[in-house]
Amino acid sequence: MKLDRAKLIRAREMLGYGVEKTAEEAGVSKNSVLRAEHEEDIRPLTARKIAAALEVRVADLMWEEEASGKEEASSSLQSPLDGFVEEERRAATEWLRGQGFGIATMPLEELQEHTSSPYNRPKLVKLSRRAGKEAQRLIALYRAGDLPRGVGFSIQLTQERKFIFDLALQVCDAAAQSRSETG
């Protein structure tokens, strides 16, 4: 089985992992990760382990034509691992909530509610600041090696949500300016 180099590297870098960290998290050799990154044949089990370590599906790391043709076959191979990854994400979410990281664990409905009204500026300012602080805390924990396995996704998620809050603030400001110009 061969994986797409660009997709594999992108998934690895999104978590801030190097080749060694990916190998360690996946429980495979560094050479296995390097073979995968050089689009050489690797075992399906190795591909599943690497995908789980990177918190993605094997199909997410495959070439487009291979992924679509093998999706049905890979889903039956991957189902036990999906349960493991889902359990790990559930544990990561509980850890995040327990540590007070509310932005990464905020339900999408709540996120939409906060960003949908142009009259919600004070709340958006608070949420943007909170997201920035939480992202900084998560990065500091990551750099210190104190971020539990499976929680790496929360850094990017928190940064993305800060971006969404900042964008909603810009929309609020534009709406206010438009109202003042027309009124």
Give an overview of the whole structure:
It contains nine helices and no strands. The chain is mainly α. It starts with a helix and ends with a helix.
Biggest sheet architecture: none
On the 0 to 100 scale, the average pLDDT is 81
Strands, total number = 0
Derived structural class: mainly alpha
Task: State the end-to-end CA separation.
Answer: 64 Å
The proportion of residues in beta strands is under 5%
- What's the overall geometry? elongated
Tally of separate helices = 9
Low-confidence runs: 67-82
For the CA atoms, what is the radius of gyration? Answer: 20 Å
What order do the helices and strands follow? HHHHHHHHH
What would you call the quaternary organization?
single chain
Task: Tell me briefly what this model is.
This protein has 183 residues and is mostly helical. It is 75% helix and 0% strand.
Structure keywords:
183 residues, 9 helices, mainly alpha
What does the secondary structure layout of this molecule look like, with pairings?
Elements: H1 5-14, H2 19-26, H3 30-37, H4 44-53, H5 64-98, H6 102-105, H7 108-116, H8 121-143, H9 153-182
Helix pairs in contact: 2-3, 2-4, 7-9, 8-9
